[in-house]
Amino acid sequence: MREVRQISLPVKDLPDRWYNIIPDLPEPLPAAEGDMTAMGKAIIKECLNQEFSAQNWVEIPDELHGAYQQIGRPRPLFRAVNLERRLDTSAELYYKAEGLFSPTGSHKINTAIAQAYYAKQQGLGRLVTETGAGQWGTALSCAARIMGLKATVYWVRAVYKWKEARRDFMKLYGADVFASPSENTETGRKLVRQDSEHPGSLAIAISEGLEDALSDDRAAYVLGSVLNHVLLHQTIIGLECRKQLELVDRYPDVVVSCLGGGSNFGGIALPFLGDAVKQGRKTRFVAAQSQAAPNLQGEYRYDNADYSGITPRLKMYTLGHQKEMPPIFGDGIRYHGCSPILSLLRNRGYIDTVAYPTDEKYVFDCAKLFLSEEGFLPAPESAYSIAAAIDEANACSEAGESRTILFNVSGHGFMDMEGYRQVLQI
Amino acid sequence: MREVRQISLPVKDLPDRWYNIIPDLPEPLPAAEGDMTAMGKAIIKECLNQEFSAQNWVEIPDELHGAYQQIGRPRPLFRAVNLERRLDTSAELYYKAEGLFSPTGSHKINTAIAQAYYAKQQGLGRLVTETGAGQWGTALSCAARIMGLKATVYWVRAVYKWKEARRDFMKLYGADVFASPSENTETGRKLVRQDSEHPGSLAIAISEGLEDALSDDRAAYVLGSVLNHVLLHQTIIGLECRKQLELVDRYPDVVVSCLGGGSNFGGIALPFLGDAVKQGRKTRFVAAQSQAAPNLQGEYRYDNADYSGITPRLKMYTLGHQKEMPPIFGDGIRYHGCSPILSLLRNRGYIDTVAYPTDEKYVFDCAKLFLSEEGFLPAPESAYSIAAAIDEANACSEAGESRTILFNVSGHGFMDMEGYRQVLQI
Lengths: 426, 426
Known about the structure:
The structure is a homodimer of 426-residue chains.
Chain A: E1 6-7, E2 17-19, H1 37-42, H2 45-51, E3 57-59, H3 62-70, E4 77-79, H4 81-87, E5 92-97, H5 109-121, E6 126-131, H6 135-146, E7 150-156, H7 157-160, H8 164-172, E8 176-180, H9 186-194, H10 202-214, E9 219-221, H11 228-247, E10 254-258, H12 263-279, E11 284-290, E12 299-304, E13 313-318, H13 340-347, E14 351-356, H14 361-374, H15 380-398, E15 404-409, H16 417-424
Parallel strand pairs in A: 5-15, 6-7, 6-9, 7-8, 10-11, 10-15, 11-14
Antiparallel strand pairs in A: 1-4, 2-3, 4-5, 12-13
Helix pairs in contact in A: 2-11, 3-5, 4-14, 5-6, 6-8, 11-12, 14-15
């Protein structure tokens, strides 16, 4: 008998619209506070419209639909048959291969390509952004290139210096990549004058990017997480999963993903969270986090999205925008605040969370187990998704129940072997 | 209007048998010469049967069909719309994403998983192999792990030492990886005694692997290219492509792939070569090679598959089994001889060849162009496929014709940025 291990979606069933949960939220999304001038000017106009859209569904334009095909969408949903056997679990485990089938190695390309498309429509010539771990900078470099735009990436110097392969990858896409602080901006020059080898920070890189974009009428500043329009674009993940699970007559009892700012968690979960809110479905949503940055265990209040306080204040779960967070290999989930949409749903009890120890031993062990059984190498961030999915499967077995668990492997680890080496002492 | 950029094949249409061209060849395949005892004893029995099979079609067992799904098969076929536009070509370009959607980064997993399956059926406990560039060693490590077998990899020390990420990757799959020459075998110990830092060679690694496998009744020695059964397993590539092209009502006028021993070229080309031989179809087949190892421009004669002359002699195109070949980044196509099946077809005029300069500037430039337009990062070996596909597209435009060009991107380059950096001086 042949087992189903992969559920493919025909290209003709690639979703042609994104899901916007805002009108379905149990209460209105609190407005941002503070000065919007800089951000309002720097962001792509159509993205700003989408940020406050009251429509439930937003059409994916035809050209972008083609670009989604080009970057490997729809991506397969796998049933982790071997992992189920190894865990001897009563649960069914399904994972979405977002990073493994992405040209840049993560789900970030889903919104990068959309933003680049709208920037081109607007007649812009250049996109500017910051990057920390580098996944977002790579995705933006790729998307800009595909849409015929220039890209400028300000990359925290401390990371820029050692991630040589990823840096070359961005440059190969034609991006201008600068160690931040740089000589390009007022903010950067001041800091470089104090210390020519200043290690930088995400906050400084954001300041530099904004300053750069605002000084050029043909440039926009683009963001890779937290904001509503970013999560909107990422719902393509969950919309595909819903169709794929329907093909095998399943609906998730549990949805799991790692969470930093919220783009990959929101991407897979929002379509199902919409069902939970509107139809009262009892799906369990688990955000996998690190004790280095357990933002969903923080306070629900207004806070800045960046360290320096340049951006408007958003109502969100936060650890405080100047919180010091210990370094981890899963750097993509090391962020002080969570997307306002997900924060509201967390506050209303729809989202549960688990935070794993900062030594990362447990999550890398889980990633290794996944690799051993399923063959694919996950990114450190995705190791958190996998750990939480395994914990949920074990809980399901203990309860003697049969549950359908859906989880997101949002990145591959081909450029992150250093984490495996150090944590697992290979 | 929406363009077709990706042709997906539903899982239910994943081929359930491989194509064996041997009975269709225009003349009988010349028998191997020399002592077969060691190889006959060391190779998996079912693979040995397949090596000499007279059946046109070989069933893929159900469990292996499931494993093929698990490793991401069927893989998508992409139409390179952006690249076509950039080249302003009258040709249609279709590329198969073999490496980009593979857990180990290349097409090698297609035969690794099949061989591991048969080894398990035979009751074996361990697979032994050699590796040069490392793609084959990684695939074998993954396949063995998935099938619950141990893997031992002898890796040419000169490469083992610097490809740290790939080495960790194999070890993470649970493989025992040894720098060759090693202390494990008589052959190895002799050489290590002379020079404890002996750089090794593929030939030495083969000798070590064979010695190791022959000393253990529960072990087999497995090969990743050249032999008939390896090419048989790889025909899954071309069989999928045929179905995918049928979905858009196309048949290839030109089939292109890079060629070293012949496994990825054979994989994509053999089903169409069968049509050329049986039905006289006028498809053009182009093997992309390096001037470092233009084996298809060598002599068609009996020669050994290894440096030391341990293996039987095969009738093939060869540069001589002790030919010195300059190092290139596309190390996977740096081999002195070509598969006997493909050699026979070359000798009968079915296969054309092009060899690119050893500085690799042109092929890396083509890979960069491909990345810029299509988004995906190819392995250095696949850069040769891309270069030849681009050349064919330009020739087609010059002839003012409309041709369907099919090419294979057999590996991704996430672990090969060093080649891009050095050749393109990023």
